[in-house]
Amino acid sequence: MSKKYAVFITCLFLAFLGIFAAANAVTPDKDFSPMENRALAQMPELSGDALLSGSFMEDFESYVTDQFVLRDQWIALKAGAEYASGKKENNGVYICDEHTLIARFDPPANDRAKKRIDDNFGYVEKLAGLTDVPVYFSLIPGKVSVWADLLPEGAPNDDEGQYIARGAALQGPKWLDAATTLNAHKDEYIFYRTDHHWTTLGAYYAYAALAEGMGLEPMPLSSFDRQVVSQEFFGTTFSSSGVRWLEPDTMEFFVPQEAATVTNYFDGTPTEGQLYDLSKLSEKDKYSAFLGGNKPLTVVKSNVAPEGAPKLMLIRDSYADSMAPFLCYHFSEIHLVDPRYYKTSMAQYVKDNAIDQVLVMYAVNNFVKDGNLFVLGMAAK
Amino acid sequence: MVFSTPFFLFFYLPIVLAVYYITPLKFRNAVLLLLNLIFYGWGEPVYILIMFASIAIDYTHGLLVTRCQAKGNDKGARLAVASSVIFNLALLGVFKYSDFVISNLNALLGTAIPLTGLKLPIGISFYTFQTMSYTIDVYRGDAKAQKNIVTFGTFVTLFPQLIAGPIIKYKDLDDQLEHRTHSPEQFAAGVQTFVVGLAKKVLIANNIGSLWDAIKATELSGLTVVGAWLGAAVCALQLYFDFSGYSDMAIGLGRMLGFEFLKNFDYPFISKSVSEFWRRWHISLGSWFREYVYFPLGGSRKGKWRTCLNLLIVWTLTGVWHGAAWNFVLWGLYFGVLILCERVLWGKALEKLPGWVRHVYTLFLVTVSFAIFGVEDMAKLPGYLAAMFGFAGGGVVNATTLYYLRGYLPVLVISLVASTPWISGLVKQHLSVDRSKAGRVLLPVGLMAGLILCTAYLVDATYNPFLYFRF
Q1: Does residue B201 sit in the same domain as residue B269?
Q2: Considering only CB atoms, which chain A residues are within 8 Å of B448?
Q3: Per-residue pLDDT tens for B166-194?
Q4: Are B171 and B192 in the same domain?
Q5: Which of A31, A209, B41, B237 is a good FRET partner for B380, with 20 to 30 A between their CA atoms?
Q6: Same domain for B299 and B157
Q7: Is residue B212 part of a domain?
Q8: pLDDT-based confidence at B463, cuts 50/70/90?
């Protein structure tokens, strides 16, 4: 190697490191990544304690990685390289046929995770014994089972069906079957291709099945004036997959905004909400337009329910946000409680708020992982 | 700190290179020592104290040995060597093996001695071995005691090889510590080695590592014969690319700072016997054990039975060096027995067989060994081995195995090819930058492509553990 050439190679290497090092130093830090839907690590505060414990160094490394210039583009490049190398999977997401992304569903990783599942079923069973009102229970299958046909051949996943069967066999709560209906409509657009949630149509079919199970007559699909509210929705699975070459999803509203008056409780004090928070439609996380996204407690007062309709408490995950509008036709009030953020006895809540019926509804994938369902097993005082 | 992070590549390394080259030659060791200590303390600041103690004690022992020898006091010199070895082994014993010993004692005697819960100081298995070699070399007259504690400290803490080797003997580095030259040729060579190492680690080892994780996590009842073999082979390849990638990065960084380290891997998977495999795998560890344990025990000069014993001792130690767990002991013994057999039983016969048979023989035994290495749960290991030989009832192959095979096939093919000297031979023959114009164009293109892809994988990665971190 000639000296000149060696200098060239050396400079090339140093320039590569230097340019990105300088760019990282110069570009202003971002607080939030809409793509990843999370707050990005910030420059950690320097203190003696943080230095000694090593937490400063750890935080600083996360800070450098999180604030790396062109972060989203690097992640997309990696996803592209993986796909080009023949992999049908990136960051725990299967890249499936028909522009569809499906998150991998892993079996419980260890005994603790197995016990959590046992416990969660136990809490639901216990809740039925802790209150006098009827307790309904439903587990929603995800794309990974309903759209299993689209998965890459042989892609390993845990079986959601076993958990659904287990839920159906519980003693105490009354089981509501959503899986059969969803499977019957699997050729329709019932899940977002790039998000883990169901579409409004999927939520409607599940609502219809649940309503029948509760002895109610569901509204016919034809009675709704379907509004397309976004054709540029890229969901959570899109974000985590890193895959950037897919078509966006379409989002619809079925039930009109005026069908209910909504009150949110972020911390205890009521704030005014809406069935649909239209401002979210211009953000990345468009699904949170339904009821405005995650929060501890939402009370939906129906303007369309028949006189004297009962009050429903819905213990739920985010799938319920897009189903709640349909329930307005049958319940005077729907109290949506998210145990992730609302940590008091559910039985007590039933008592305090004169609830007539309880529905525990979760996506299988959330139910098996949720570590907060112990509030279902807490007795009222 | 590890090399394969955006923080190291785009923050620490530029600072290191800038500071190092701005500093006048005379003070470069002092500056390097400081940079080494920051590198080491980055993960576990408190353990810098162990490093200081290690430097101070081994430095003193080196001088002590020289002084005793100058006075003709061989006994004193021997004592000093023994004291240094005891100190280093005690360090290793306390931090690496105490909990292993305690938990086995508890299980054996039914006692309830509490575990220490000490976190393993990074690289302790590497630097204790290096400092032991120092006092021994001084005693043997292979090296002169270092009078300058800064220079000695620089040797002990030299960051490129501090936390994952190669294990460098003081006598191989003493001249370079005192006078080393820096040239663009050496720097550019370092860049190439470093980028190759980075790509081995980030693009191959991490990549196929997720496949090994998935196979390892499979319930034994669902593990097929093909899956189990695929797993063991992937485990072997992952370790090779992870560890040799790290060694390459170390050698490359060393060159950028003016050092030349000896190579640590020499295409082990092309070996034609198990003994040869170990002459090509983690060379610096094998040569350390040979020089400081096997030969002093008498090597093969004290009769057949003693040779056998010596081999088994060395290989058990090599096993536990890799980790404080029974599977590593078993792994070491497995190699000990095989190397012994090649020596006294079938070595001669083996040499008469055609080359491909010897390859198959070696790869078969080596692949099995990495199942022992990789399945750390001793309760699961028999089941895994049974699955490899079709006794676990998981069948020969299933849809999941085929899914993995399909998805990973390109990476596996690349890693298999890259584990032979084939590509590097082709490059040397046809694309050498000295003789070929295409080579002169392809080298910078390849380097940039490698760096860009590695950066993409690193920015994306949450999956980036260094395997040899625990040893």
Answers
A1: yes
A2: 12, 16
A3: 999 998 888 899 888 899 999 999 999 99
A4: no
A5: B237
A6: no
A7: yes
A8: very low
Q: Which residues on adjacent β-strands are paired with residue A270?
A: A265
Domain co-membership, B111 together with B191: no
One-letter amino acid at A356 equals D
Tokens of A177: 């079957």
Return the axis-axis angle of helices B381-388 and B225-256, rounded to nearest 10°.
Answer: 110
Cβ–Cβ below 8 Å for B10 and A64: yes
Instruction: Count Cβ neighbours within 10 Å for each residue of B158-194 and write b for 16 or more, e otherwise.
Output: bbbbbbbbbbbbbbbbbebbeebebebbbbbbbbbbb
Give the minimum alpha-carbon distance from B97 to chain A in angstroms, rounded to a whole number.
24
Phi first, then psi, for residue A250 (nearest 5°) are -110, 140
A8 interfacial to chain B (CB closer than 8 Å): yes
Write out the residue range of the structural domain in which residue B176 sits.
6-180
With vertex at residue A27, the alpha carbon angle to CA A26 and CA A31, rounded to the nearest 5 degrees, is: 135
Mark which residues 26-55 of A lie under 8 Å from B by CB: 51-54
In 3-state terms, what secondary structure has residue A356?
coil
Q: Closest CB to A154: pick one of B217, B399, B447.
A: B399
- Best mutation site among A2, A7, A10 for testing chain B: the one with the most B CBs within 10 Å? A10
């219809």: which residue's tokens? A208
Same structural domain, B212 and B342: yes
Band the pLDDT of B465: cuts 50, 70, 90.
Answer: very low
Q: Are residues B414 and B436 in the same domain?
A: yes
A114 touches chain B (CB under 8 A): no
Map residue B219 onto helix, strand or coil: coil
Active site residue B322: yes
| B199 and B152 fall within a common domain | no
Nearest CB to B410 within list A17, A51, A86: A86
pTM: 0.87
Instruction: Name the residue facing A24 among B10, B407, B448 (closest C-beta).
Output: B10
* A127 contact partners, CB below 8 Å, separation of at least 6: A135, A172, A173, A346, A347, A358, A360, A376, A377
Which residue, among B106, B110, B115, B95, has the nearest Cα to B51 in the 3D structure?
B95
Q: Which of B135, B150, B180 is the last residue in one of the domains?
A: B180
Same domain assignment for residues B175 and B121: yes
d(C-alpha B247, C-alpha B348), whole Å: 33
ipTM, interface predicted TM-score of the complex: 0.89
